Amino acid sequence: MQKLTQFILINFLLLTSFLTLAVTPSISANDLIVNQMSDKAFKIIDVRTPEEFAAGHIKGAINIPYDQIEAQTVKLKMLKQHTLVVYCRSGRRARIFEGILQKRGFNLKHLEGDYLAWKAAQLPLIIDN
After folding, report:
1. What is the mean pLDDT of residues 60-66?
2. Spatial strand order in the sheet of 62-63
3. Which CATH number fits domain 25-120: 3.40.250.10, 1.10.10.10, 3.40.50.720, 3.40.50.10380?
4. Based on the number of CB atoms within 10 Å of its own CB, is 14 exposed (0-12), middle (13-18) or buried (19 or more)?
5. Ranges for the Rhodanese domain (predicted)?
């Protein structure tokens, strides 16, 4: 029984440590606004579709749809020296995108609450006509 308990405990600790490593650090909307004004090595990546991006996005955001990551390799390589803040509508697509870029050694942050929280807080949006 003691060996089973040890086995479960060790595997639980290993699993939680791997999950911790896999999670991208987050940044709040307020911190993002402050960093936009002060940090030039800071880039915002919107991974929604071009249509969603045109309907409203954060000022300075670069649109790289999450399902076009391989087609955007050149653009991404040019951004590698920057800290990238990634968002989508609700978080699912951004997490997929972040997982791929983490494996490639990018420095990433995830926008807390993504686009929906930004919009709900009535923070400024750029709308393309």
Report:
1. 97
2. 26-27, 107-111, 83-87, 42-46, 62-63
3. 3.40.250.10
4. exposed
5. 38-127
Structure-block tokens of residue 73 = 């390799």
Q: How far apart are CA 86 and CA 92, in angstroms?
A: 11
Instruction: Read off the pTM.
Output: 0.80
User: In the block, which residue shows the tokens 């997490």?
Assistant: 95
What integer best gives the mean pLDDT of the chain? 87
Q: Are 47 and 66 spatial neighbours (Cβ–Cβ below 8 Å)?
A: yes
pLDDT one-digit tens code per residue, 98-120: 999 999 999 999 999 999 999 99
At residue 114, what is the residue type?
D
